[in-house]
Backbone:
């Protein structure tokens, strides 16, 4: 038994025997817990009500978790286990999931915990919280994956995959699909390793054909597990990426395109920026027409105007023959620099300085005014203040010069000179 488990069943010491205490089912005695419980009594009288006791204990566990007091939380947990015997059927029914969530959190972070301790706890909770079997199995497998125990995780997922209890509900079906998908990810990992091994072999070598056949077997199993899940509305990024990589490897470009189009554009799926990123990268690998790439990034721009691909979007718009794209290119640059996380993006400032000059020289003053009118009340203090002049010049002189140029174009040449002098005065 681990040190952690031994601590949980620590016997009462002689010093504690003379004090009133709360005892757990295993005979543990916690005198300090008794004091806490007595503190909830009214009029100096101890409250013996079962619900009051478990409620107080739960509050103490939560407090200990918030303070990362893992040993104290574990001791409270021993007393809280009595909630599994609550006379209230509704509370008793929900108790196993609460015990599992609290207990797994404690065991995950407790310095004396071990994989063996976690495995024992998970197995017991699966039997107690029978309706939570699938959830517990999935979290158990993820815990084992975190510790690099891939074979053990695969065994847990395989057991859960075939488990059934009562009539099959929709929520149970989703969990089964999710479990199968995680099993698919493990199979993808094995496939990927074989792919790396294959890349090192000579195609004329006999070993190449054997390795190639093994890869094909793995891909078939993985495809079945992943394909089912990604057809269900949701955010399935790691599963989609793995599936697409396999489809592309075997030359199924049409299949990959269909999956990515559904993932990005199907209205049943939640809005997901990554779905459009994956589609764009796929189309880029396929050397799709510029118009198609622009149409994908335009939707991404509407969702995340500050995405790192927006500079690439600007370049595509700049190369387009359409005037509306040139106008949008200016809007995209302003949109990027609206965000605090992009204020020091020197590439964006260089692009804006250059594009502002081109736009003004092209007799499109109205485009600049349209973008500037909604920003002139806050951009000067947000980007061109005395503080930023000092900070930018100290950290990156090239950035300071580019911002000074943009300030001059937007606010006037005098402003550019003042901004430049302010930065030099330090």
Residues:
């Amino acid at each position: 038994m681990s040190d952690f488990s031994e601590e949980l069943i620590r016997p009462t010491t002689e010093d504690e025997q003379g004090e009133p205490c709360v005892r757990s089912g295993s005979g543990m005695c916690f005198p300090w817990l008794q004091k806490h419980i007595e503190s909830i009594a009214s009029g100096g009288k101890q409250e013996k009500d079962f619900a009051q006791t478990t409620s107080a204990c739960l509050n103490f566990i939560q407090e200990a978790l918030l303070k990362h007091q893992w040993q104290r939380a574990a001791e409270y947990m021993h007393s809280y286990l009595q909630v599994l015997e609550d006379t209230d059927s509704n509370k008793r029914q929900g108790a196993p999931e609460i015990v599992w969530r609290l207990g797994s959190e404690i065991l995950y972070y407790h310095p004396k915990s071990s994989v063996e301790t976690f495995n024992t706890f998970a197995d017991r909770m699966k039997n107690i919280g029978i309706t939570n079997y699938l959830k517990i199995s999935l979290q158990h497998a993820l815990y084992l994956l975190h510790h690099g125990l891939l074979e053990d995780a695969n065994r847990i997922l395989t057991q859960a995959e075939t488990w059934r209890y009562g009539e099959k509900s929709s929520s149970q079906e989703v969990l089964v699909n999710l479990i199968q998908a995680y099993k698919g990810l493990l199979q993808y990992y094995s496939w990927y390793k074989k792919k790396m091994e294959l890349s090192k072999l000579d195609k004329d070598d006999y070993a190449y054909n054997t390795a190639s056949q093994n890869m094909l077997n793995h891909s078939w199993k993985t495809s079945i597990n992943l394909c089912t899940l990604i057809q269900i509305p949701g955010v399935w990024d790691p599963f989609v990426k793995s599936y697409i990589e396999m489809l592309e490897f075997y030359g199924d470009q049409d299949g990959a395109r269909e999956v990515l189009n559904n993932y990005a554009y199907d209205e049943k799926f939640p809005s997901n920026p990554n779905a459009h990123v994956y589609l764009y990268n796929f189309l880029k690998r396929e050397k799709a027409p510029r118009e198609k790439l622009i149409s994908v990034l335009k939707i991404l721009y509407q969702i995340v105007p500050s995405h790192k691909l927006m500079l690439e979007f600007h370049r595509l718009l700049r190369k387009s023959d359409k005037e509306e794209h040139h106008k949008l290119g200016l809007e995209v640059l302003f949109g990027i620099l609206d965000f605090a996380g992009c204020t020091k993006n020197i590439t964006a400032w260089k692009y804006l300085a250059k594009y502002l000059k081109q736009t003004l020289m092209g007799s499109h003053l109205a485009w600049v005014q349209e973008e500037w009118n909604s920003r002139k009340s806050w951009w000067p203090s947000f980007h061109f203040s005395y503080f930023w002049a000092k900070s930018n010049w100290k950290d990156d002189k090239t950035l300071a010069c580019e911002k000074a140029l943009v300030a001059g174009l937007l606010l006037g040449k005098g402003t550019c000179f003042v901004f430049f002098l302010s930065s030099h005065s330090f």
